[in-house]
Amino acid sequence: MRVFTLCLLFWFTALLCNAAASFTIDITHPDYKLLVNRTHTERTAALFDYYNEFIRYRDSSTIFSAIATVRELAKQNHDDDLLPEADLMEAHYYAYRYDNRIPELTKMLLAFIAKAQNKNALWLEARTESLLGTRLFDNKLYESGMIHLTKSVQLLEAQSPDVYPIKQIDLYLLGDLHYSFREYNEAIKLYKDALAASGKYDLYYYYMKILNEMASAYSHLNMLDSSNVYFERSYNLATAHNDTLWQIVTQGDLGENYYRQGNYKDAEPLLKKDVAFCESRNGWDNASHSLALLGDIALHQHNLPLAHQRITLALEYAHRCGEYGRLEAVYPAAVN
Fold first, then answer.
1. In this prediction, what percent of the chain has a pLDDT beyond 70?
2. CA-to-CA distance for 162 and 159, rounded, in angstroms?
3. Buried/exposed code over 119-138 (b: 16+ C-beta within 10 A; e: otherwise)
């Protein structure tokens, strides 16, 4: 399916919805006093944007100054739970910035896990296992990454997502790991568990990813009716949030499903919208893919001039993006 390239392309422009949090940290001018004497649930929900944006992108001196401020506030206010949050901030900084420091990061996070177990701090243990698992996996340490992320999911299995806001995210991430190895049935099971782990701190972005990847997994299993159901759900959710990006992404995937079902009437307008969207953002790879499908539809309609036009452009876009695997979708139609 074509959804994942677009998802990665716009990963950091996705809308993060966290209206249910009792307070939030303004990442433009953070007020760290708001973190003092809060529950781990409140802090976790309020810091989603902070970890995704501030820690990931700000300069090192600003970040370490912030971490020092949080540590000082924790000490001044005798807030024992806030100190490990500052440690996690530092760990996230290294996790995001230095892939060549994975051995150091692993040692640091394993020490956090041991500390969390000694303090019976389930929130810290689960969050650390999740961070370690995803970073190891991202750095091609697949088995170790799967082990640690699975442990985080297991730790939260009996816990409420209203108390542990990362529960749904962990289930999605573990499903995504299985998806990457084409273990689609296991991925679907985890995505369903993630949907069931809905709570008041759900993030719109992850909810959309769950729906879309479940739809894509069903498509890979050639269960197109089930795939359509989840693509339609994600389209309706995107519409409710006025999210044009996800609407277009979902329409393109629905168009491909309809094409595979031989429903060319419904497929063609959706694929045309996808091509126009991708062209406007120089997304030549996905534009090539949809044009190849449109070219084949024209062949089935016995419109040879239109088929030639579409397939020629699909070939041009495939060469333009340099992803020659895209030619695999174009050549069968071109030969016909």
1. 89
2. 9
3. eebbbbbbbbbbbbbbbbbe
Q: Which of 44, 80, 325, 256 is nearest to 168 (CA)?
A: 44
Helix (H, G, I), strand (E, B) or coil at 15: coil
Based on its alpha-carbon atoms, the radius of gyration of the chain, rounded to whole angstroms, reads 23
Q: Report the C-alpha gap between 195 and 75 in whole angstroms.
A: 39
- φ/ψ bin of 243: left (φ > 0), alpha (ψ from -120 to 50), beta (otherwise): beta
Cα separation, 323 vs 249, in Å, equals 20
What is the spatial distance between Cα 26 and Cα 7, in angstroms, rounded to a whole number? Answer: 26
Q: So what's the pLDDT on residue 100?
A: 78
Computed from CA positions of residues 47, 49, 50, 51, in that sequence, does the dihedral angle turn out positive or negative?
Answer: positive
Q: Which long-range contacts (CB under 8 A, 24 or more apart) does 267-273 make?
A: 267/293, 267/297, 268/294, 268/297, 271/297, 273/248
Residues 199-215: tens digit of each pLDDT: 999 999 899 999 999 99
Q: CA neighbours within 13 Å on the CB side: how many for 92?
A: 24
| pLDDT per residue as tens digits for the range 303-328 | 999 999 998 999 898 888 766 555 55
Q: What are 259-264's contacts with CB under 8 Å, separation 24+? A: 259/293, 259/296, 259/297, 260/219, 260/224, 261/224, 264/297, 264/300, 264/301
Give the pair of three-digit tokens for residue 147. 């082990």
Residues 302 and 321 sit within 8 Å (Cβ to Cβ): no
